Amino acid sequence: MINERQIISNIKIRWYLSSLWIGKGKNYYEIEMLKNTSYGSFNWLWSDVDTILFDKDSLDFISAVIKLKEPIKVKRDKMSIVFKEVKCGNIKISEEGNFDCKLSDFTEYYVEGDILLSYSEKWIRTEPSIEVKVTVDFSIVLQNNEMIGIVIYKASNHILPDNEYLIDENENIESDICIMLGSFFQLLEKIDDDLTQHERSELKILFLEIYEQALTHDDLRYKALRDTILNVIDYI
Fold it and tell me: What are phi and psi of 22, to 5 degrees?
């Protein structure tokens, strides 16, 4: 069901590169507390199933924590999905109680357009689906009256480092951060336990090149990318 009231603020759409936090709940404790007043899938970020919550009184979608499927596939072309219908508002759960809903079987980042798409393997992209624009930049995809995916527009504007909870409203898409993200995700795909020491060293150098590019910028998006790159280099 679709509710035309806007409930979630655009500044509460947060992308921590490996996960999405949407709406209410800025940390694990607050998500745990929301379980007392919500219906939904009560699983942690680290589980195989996403945490998606609906308010018990209104049945409105209020929050989600989605662990993005890795590697995130980089797309250099424009997103070509055509929705049968586009609506604005929110969605309501149609039946009270808990349910299983997984939106992160696949994750794609479109460099041209700066779009992040995360969706369930159940989604048949050639079949009609509905886009519900919950905020200016955040949409839920429905197919056969089922929540099947999410779309984040101006995705790089929603990147935050750990312990930051609200984005700055920024209408401009900076192409350099989009290019850096695309290069970063493509490098992540090359990480493998079977890499030789020489291959690991070469990968570290490539990650550091992106890190140095990000050093020339001060805002939080670039800081989040730098922090993540350092963590990846430590892992390699």
Answer: -125, 130
